[in-house]
Automatic annotation (TrEMBL):
Coiled coil: none annotated. It is found in: Plastid, Chloroplast stroma. It is an enzyme of class 1 (oxidoreductase). Pfam families: Rieske, Ring_hydroxyl_A. Its EC number is 1.14.15.7. GO terms for biological process: glycine betaine biosynthetic process from choline. GO terms for molecular function: 2 iron, 2 sulfur cluster binding; choline monooxygenase activity; iron ion binding. It comes from the Eukaryota. It catalyses: choline + 2 reduced [2Fe-2S]-[ferredoxin] + O2 + 2 H(+) = betaine aldehyde hydrate + 2 oxidized [2Fe-2S]-[ferredoxin] + H2O. Keywords: 2Fe-2S, Iron, Iron-sulfur, Metal-binding, Monooxygenase, Oxidoreductase, Transit peptide. This is Choline monooxygenase, chloroplastic. It comes from Lupinus albus. Signal peptide: none annotated. SUPFAM superfamilies: Bet v1-like, ISP domain.
Length: 411
């Protein structure tokens, strides 16, 4: 006769422990909830301090609390990052069978892998025994072995081996596989959807993903060279002492700061040609290059630079033979990590001097932006500042971003 299980908790959120001794036990064991009780009167007051219905010519920016308050940050994680499709990496990281990489989004530890058959999968990177992280970094594995007690999982998430469980009663191995996460690829990007966790590991329709993630501008990005034809070059990561939205706002100011903060870059662009287009969840900024630049720099920038912001935290920059992407990961109210991946036309990937010089030029711009963003965060924490205003002709994309945030936060 089986001994009844005692109540215990298997949820990622902070909800109350659940008693598993009822017919739906298997469903509770194999699924986790990312929802938390973050909706409260104080947070609603903070959200409502921004009004998206006011036209940009009259609107004020979100208040400083959106960038500094810990409870507001927690609300964002649940309403913004734990819903919808989120970019988490590059297909270069899982180009071969048995490849894997790990990452973290808010409180969610995840692992993405390509199994023996070549299928892309994603799971919560947490052992089902006592919650140890299973894998770290990236590389190749034929299975995931928990470093704590040796429980072993296949790349399909199934529990293959549970050590020293003799005497354990009422244990069904099928109930203790890794918790799957919906995963998809679009072009050279890997995306996950934490809102659509499912026991099913069926392939996700890429057309549906493009529609949900990019809306009506997926074709525009594809025809402007955002695809898988470029060669992957390298990754660079920056930890910045600012709220994740500060970095996004800086990106979305329509080139406003470029002539003041990026004089080297500004000399290569025709800033009076700047244009901005908005779509459902995407904004695209474009600017022609300055034909007066030297041939070397002209080759790097090409005839036109295109800067696409995909809500909430992903940026694609396409210029000349280059494409680079910026993924902004929230680490706390006052800290974020920005991950840059660089791609290049395959005909130039072996030109070491050209690649090194181009990356050095990019590094200069990133360091300049870091100084700006960290300075803004300090200013946001000052009692001298509460809200600001938008420059209507150049900061439309920033206003669009804030309106999308408001929509997410009030759902």
């Amino acid at each position: 006769m089986a001994m009844p299980l005692k109540p215990f908790t298997l949820c990622l959120g902070h909800s109350k422990p659940r008693n598993l001794n009822f017919p739906n036990k298997r469903e509770i064991i194999t699924r986790c909830s990312l929802r938390d009780s973050v909706s409260n009167t104080q947070n609603h007051k903070l959200v409502d301090q921004f009004n998206p219905k006011i036209p940009i010519e009259e609107a004020v920016t979100p208040p400083t609390s959106w960038y500094t308050d810990p409870s507001f940050f927690n609300l964002e994680l649940h309403r913004v990052f734990y819903t919808g499709w989120q970019v988490v990496g590059s297909t270069e990281q899982i180009k071969d069978a048995l490849d894997f990489f790990t990452g973290r989004l808010g409180d969610v530890e995840f692992v993405v892998c390509r199994d023996e058959s070549g299928k892309v999968r994603a799971f919560h990177n947490v052992c089902r025994h006592h919650a140890s992280l299973l894998a770290s970094g990236s590389g190749q594995k034929s299975c995931f072995v928990c470093p704590y007690h040796g429980w072993t999982y296949g790349l399909n998430g199934a529990l293959l081996k549970a050590t020293r469980i003799s005497g354990m009663r009422d244990f069904n191995v099928k109930d203790f596989g890794l918790i799957p996460i919906k995963v998809a690829t679009w072009g050279p990007f890997v995306l996950v959807n934490l809102e659509k966790e499912s026991l099913s590991q069926n392939e996700v329709d890429s057309h549906n993903v493009a529609s949900e993630w990019l809306g009506s501008c997926s074709g525009i990005l594809s025809t402007n060279g955002v695809d898988s034809s470029l060669s992957y070059v390298c990754r660079r990561e920056y930890t910045i002492e600012c709220n994740w939205k500060v970095f996004c706002d800086n990106y979305l100011d329509g080139g406003y700061h470029v002539p003041y903060a990026h004089k080297g870059l500004a000399s290569g662009l025709k800033l009076d040609s700047y244009s901005i287009s908005m779509f459902e969840r995407v904004s695209i900024q474009s600017c022609e290059s300055n034909s007066g630049k030297s041939e070397e720099n002209y080759d790097r920038l090409g005839r036109k630079a295109i800067y696409a912001f995909i809500y909430p935290n992903f940026m694609i920059n396409r210029y000349g033979p280059w494409m680079d992407t910026n993924l902004v990961l929230p680490l706390g109210p006052n800290k974020c990590q920005v991950v840059f991946d660089y791609y290049l036309d395959h005909s130039l990937k072996d030109d070491k001097d050209y690649v090194e010089n181009s990356l050095q030029d990019s590094e200069i711009v990133q360091i300049e932006d870091i100084v700006l963003c960290e300075g803004v965060q300090k200013g946001l924490q000052s009692p001298a500042y509460c809200v600001g205003r938008y420059a209507p002709r150049v900061e439309q994309a920033m206003h669009h971003f804030h309106c999308l945030l408001y929509e997410n936060l009030t759902k």
